[in-house]
Every structure is written in structure tokens, then in C-alpha cells.
Amino acid sequence: MAKAIRVHQTGGAEVLTFEDVEIGQPGKGEAAIKQTAIGVNFIDVYHRTGLYPQQTPFTLGSEGAGVVTAIGEGVTDVAVGDRVAYAGGPLGAYATERLIPADKLVKIPSGVSDETAAAAMLKGMTAQYLLRRTFKVGPEHVILFHAAAGGVGQIACQWAAHLGATVIGTAGGPEKVALAKTKGCAHVIDYKTENFVERVREITGGKGCDVVYDSVGKDAFPGSLDCLKPRGLWASFGQSSGSVPDFPIGLLSQKGSLYATRTSLFHYTSTRPELLATAADLFDVIASGAVTVDIGRRFPLAEAAEAHRALEGRRTTGSTILLP
């Protein structure tokens, strides 16, 4: 019998229950995997609280790694025994075993561990599309990345620096600021003690940034817009502090004919070729040593509620994983 973290009603971390589940045999197009590591992400909190509604009861989690134990009819993308990882597919990662559509799985290269894959797939593929497709970052660009010491932030800032960009990061408190400085940031702003808009203007000589990457949401708005050059891009991809308030579209004109987007990993990996290309780019940059993936916290799967409390309390740096 497999074990899983289930949500029967939405709410705080206390609603997470550790239960026996029956996963059955893989159907057509499916694979069964025995999981070895599971990624914890803020989107899991959004599902748990009901911000992103799901039909209850459900098993939480969007990211994991493991070994294929069985395949269903018609599956050719993976085989029994393959080490695989996934991110952004159907929910159900917070489990010792699970079924998943086989076309959502990617094979893990020999130079990447299961823990690294589970810690990096969702965050790393998010960094890939933000830096390589939402806005194609290069040596001529100055970028601002909020939450630079977080899981996505650490990967993205290293990657952006590798691409030659000047990276400005924000982080909360001396320890996170010091960490971000080791992860590709040329400048780090402590948002707890400094006004990040004023500091960006100082750092850029009043010119502003080409792009602001924002997973913070409410607390960083509208300041993020004030950090941009005319015709700059504000890329919102999360809301850890709460939703961005509704605003008139004319605000973008007032602040410099700005562009704005609210992105989702799903829309960048919705086809099999896109998924494989995105994951391959991520694994390549990890294997090259240009990006290292720090796993700040590890929790037993049964302690998923504590992992959520740590994440929401901003008591984590880098990636957090659950171990079945």
C-alpha cells in the first residue's frame, strides 16, 4: 500500500493528512513510479489553501523524481527501470508511489541525482522559460529578480549571470542577502531594511532595469514597475505575499509604456517537444556547473505540514524536498 499526503478540505498546513492510498495499475499512456524525492513549491500552498481550487479530496504536489515500475499500453517515452522526473503535471507528487501520464516524464541524465532533479525541475524549468523565452536575457541587460535567495531565485540568478546579465536581487535579512551574493547577484537589496525602488535607481544610475521577475506579488507592487526602464517588462510568476491588486492598464503607460505578463510553466511546456527541450536546457546548465541546486531543507514525507509552515514562514532558502 502506498502512502500519500491528502487534502480533504482546504485551509492551513494542519489540513494535510498522511494516509494509505491504492494507486492501481497504469492505464493506457500512463506509467507507475516509485518516488525517491519530491519537490515542495509555493504552488502547493496555493492548492492547499484553495487559492487555486481543486476538487477534494486530492493528493498534493506537482514535482518529483523516481523510478518507473510499470507502464501502460502504448507507452514508448519511458521504460521500466528508467530514472525519471516531472514537474507541473497532474497533482499527486506527495506520495511514495503514483501513476502519471508517461508523456509528462523526462529521463534524468546520469550526472544528475534524483534529489537534484526533484528540487530543480519546477523551479529550474521556470527559470529557463523566464530567462530564455519570456525575456531573452543577454550581456546587455540589467535584471531585477525578487526573492533571489529562494528556490527559483537561486537557479535563475546563477543562470542569468552565466548569460552575462547584470543581476540585481532582493532578499530578506542578512543571511539571505549573503547567500544571494554567492548565487550570481552583482547587487543584493535587503527589502526589510532598504527601499528596493530607490536602491535600483542608485545601482542603475537612474536608468532602471530591462526586466523585473516577480514571484512576490502584493508586497512588491507597484514598486516593481518603478524599477523598469521605459518599455521594460514586468514578469509576474507568483504571489507569495498575496495577489497583486487590480490596476488600470493605463498605469503601464504612465510608468513608461511598460509591458506586463503573468506567466505559467504549463504554457511553456504544454507540448512534449517543449517539455523535453526545456528540461534538457536545465539539465545541461546544471551538468556544466554553471548552476548549482542547493537543497536547503529535507523533510520526511509524513512531515509535509511542517515543510509548508517553513515555506510560508520564509524559513527556507534554496529548494525544499520531501523524502518518501
TrEMBL record:
Transmembrane segments: none annotated. The keyword Disulfide bond does not apply. GO terms for molecular function: mRNA 3'-UTR AU-rich region binding; NADPH binding; quinone reductase (NADPH) activity. Keywords: NADP, Oxidoreductase. It comes from the Bacteria. CDD domains: QOR2. InterPro entries: ADH-like_C, ADH-like_N, ER, GroES-like_sf, NAD(P)-bd_dom_sf, QOR-like. GO terms for cellular component: cytosol. Residues 11-322 form the Enoyl reductase (ER) domain. NCBIfam families: PRK10754.1 (NF008024). This is Quinone oxidoreductase. It comes from Hansschlegelia plantiphila. The lineage of its organism: Bacteria, Pseudomonadati, Pseudomonadota, Alphaproteobacteria, Hyphomicrobiales. The gene is qor.
